[in-house]
Design goal:
The structure is a single chain. The chain has about 200 residues and is α+β, with helices and mostly antiparallel strands. It has one domain. It contains 3 helices and 13 strands, in the order ββββββββαββααβββ. The chain has a 4-stranded antiparallel beta sheet with strand order 5-4-3-13, covered by helices on one side. A 3-stranded mixed beta sheet has the order 6-7-10, with helices on one face. It has a two-stranded antiparallel ribbon with strand order 1-2. A hairpin with a 2-residue loop joins strand 11 and strand 12. Helix 2 packs across helix 3. The protein is globular. About 25% of the residues are buried.
């Protein structure tokens, strides 16, 4: 907690640890039409890491920071540490910007809005990816098929996908939910547990 009593994830080096197994620490390769686990768990030839964010889930809230929180000091670090000036950015709540032409919600770690811009009642992905507090308010639900999309930072979307299933099934979710170049929903029980995290 900070001095005002607000809780946030640990910021110190070693305060966030990578737990091996299942999907953790593995490379996944998007080939345009599908996603597969990279052979020998290393980058395919000619590929390079795109971008890394760390995501932490606690009590209905996603916390986001740039980079791998298991290897770097986040912001000022824990409240009992010396000043972290010059270190990575602080943990921030998952937020959205809005595209006011398409009414799409844009995933970001530094947006202006705490909820989806709009969503349709026939969409399963908001329930699959996000706790209720992130859903659009009922007055902003729509029946128009061209509205209610999601775009933004790919690593944040992948983090939400990872949290959408039990940790044992994350790899299968990555492989089965992106086929023929189209994202699909799944029916697995979500894996959002207290104090869980991913770096993607």
């Amino acid at each position: 907690m900070d001095r005002s009593g607000k809780w946030f994830p640990p910021g110190s080096v070693g305060g966030n640890k990578l737990i091996g197994g299942n999907a953790s620490g593995k490379y996944w390769h998007c080939r345009g039409e599908d996603i597969i686990q990279a052979e020998e768990n290393k980058l395919p030839q000619g590929c390079y890491p795109f971008k890394t964010f760390s995501a932490y889930y606690d009590d209905g809230t996603f916390w986001i920071t740039r980079g791998d929180a298991s290897t770097q000091l986040i912001g000022a670090g824990d409240s009992n540490e010396e000043s972290g000036a010059g270190h990575g950015e602080d943990w921030r709540r998952l937020t959205f910007d809005y595209d006011e032409i398409t009414y799409a919600s844009i995933l970001t770690n530094a947006g202006q809005n705490p909820r989806l811009r709009t969503q349709r009642l026939d969409q399963d992905w908001p329930r699959m990816l996000l706790p209720e507090q992130y859903h659009a308010l009922p007055s902003f639900h729509t029946a128009h098929p061209q509205y209610g999309g999601l775009t933004g930072e790919l690593p944040l979307f992948l983090a939400l996908m990872a949290f959408s299933a039990d940790v044992r099934y994350v790899g299968g979710v990555f492989e089965s939910c992106f086929t023929f170049g189209i994202w699909r929903t799944h029916r697995e029980t979500h894996g959002r547990k207290q104090s869980a995290s991913f770096a993607l």
